[in-house]
Write a structure and sequence with these properties.
The protein is mainly alpha-helical. Helix content is about 90%, strand content about 0%. The chain is rod-shaped, with a radius of gyration of 48 Å.
């Protein structure tokens, strides 16, 4: 064989090889692709868990603040309730004394003592 024929055969083989569709992917490539997909899903899941943890921390902080506010509200409302109970009681006593004085005056006028 001459070098020209060998070259022509090599060139023909290369032309045939390059015109053929690529060989189907091997099992290793398939597995690597699946592994890459799983890695992406895992990263997304980890990010979601971290975000959920941050939201839970924020929720716990808000819960603590709400509990403190509720305690303050309860103390304040108890003080206000006591204040108005005493105010109401004093008013009832004053009204009772005034009614008693009026009744005594009526009795005194009726008996002509005054």
């Amino acid at each position: 064989m001459s070098t020209t024929t060998t070259f022509e055969i090599s060139l023909a083989e290369e032309a045939d090889y390059s015109s053929q569709p690529p060989a189907p992917s091997t099992k290793l490539d398939d597995v690597q692709g699946q592994v890459n997909e799983v890695k992406v899903i895992l990263k997304d899941n980890i990010n979601k868990v971290l975000e959920r943890g941050e939201r839970l921390d924020d929720l716990m902080d808000k819960t603590d603040d709400l509990q403190a506010t509720a305690d303050t509200f309860q103390r304040t409302s108890t003080k206000v309730a006591r204040k108005y109970w005493w105010k109401n009681t004093k008013m009832m006593i004053i009204i009772g004394v005034i009614v008693l004085i009026i009744v005594i005056l009526i009795i005194l006028f009726a008996t002509n003592v005054i």
